[in-house]
User: What shape does this take?
Amino acid sequence: MKHVASLDGLRGVAVLLVVSFHYFPRGLAGPLSTVTSVGWMGVDVFFTLSGYLITSILYEQRSERQYLRNFYMRRVLRLFPLYYSVFLLALALTSLLHIQWRAGHIAFLLYGANLVLPVDGRLNWLGPFSLAHLWSLAVEEQFYLIWPWLVGSLLRKETLRRICVVGIVAAPLLRLALLHAGVGPWWIYQSLPTRMDSLLMGALLALVRLPSLQVARMGGAVALLVFALVAWEGHSAFFLARPMQGIGYSAAACVAASILVLSLNPSTLLHRICSWRVLRFYGRYSYGIYLWHFLFLKQFGALTNWVERQVMSPLFAGLLGFALILLCSTVVAMVSYRLIERPFLRAKLLFQSRHEVLVRTRRGETWM
Assistant: This one.
């Protein structure tokens, strides 16, 4: 698949939304706090973008002889090294920090965080480190275990589209049924079946001709209106609010899909914004920033409380804490990218498709 710079920027927007949601002072900084209070939608942007990119690659390469091997090895090389570095770091610091490991933490090593966190909230913590955000990586990995086999089965494109539509419709119906049955909100928020609409929305966009700008703008506007009405009805735009879990997630997925379509079109303002160097910078390091930033939740709280005691200003303390956590997460992500991620990313070239090899050869790029 051809590299699209604006999608790097969109990935940067998504990770900044998530970091802002977790750390930006809410209710203190005026309208900006209102925007960052729905920063949890950055995860939906990630899901939709992931569904689009993965499906585009899978469908393009599904006739290759080593199709599944290449896909899974490239995913392993992209995701595993940094992910497991977090647990190796915790293991190395276990004695020093008196970290208590629980049996449930084994699920994290198998990308099953979303299966155990709703059961035992204590698993959120591994000593001083917060692991709560790893649920979204588990959802994506579980999607990767299923979707490549369906695409690689050589089903007709029309059949794959129908599967996407069925999943997109089934997800909110399932959420509503679970809400009616009294299932806990964390199960609904963190499970693949209840969040598959965002992933399949992106997948569907990869399997159809992209909607026109008019359709994308109209669809995005309607989805935003629905989202606003849901928030108004439930008196909250928080991701665990019952109305938000029923229909709000689907509206967020539609907004993310609209944003994706607009960012792909060079004539749009959003495309130009997502092409900004600063957003593409954050997009490049988004995986590391996402992985590292929430680990230090306790330390962030201690820092902001200390600053607030010194200056007697909750707003200043919150803004300073947010700036420092973003800076530190970015620096750590840059270092880990160079030391951990990049060597393994180079090894991905060993698992190129024939099409990719031909493209690189025509460009005069070295294969190794």
Summary: Residues 222 and 263 are 18 Å apart (CA to CA). The mean pLDDT is 91.
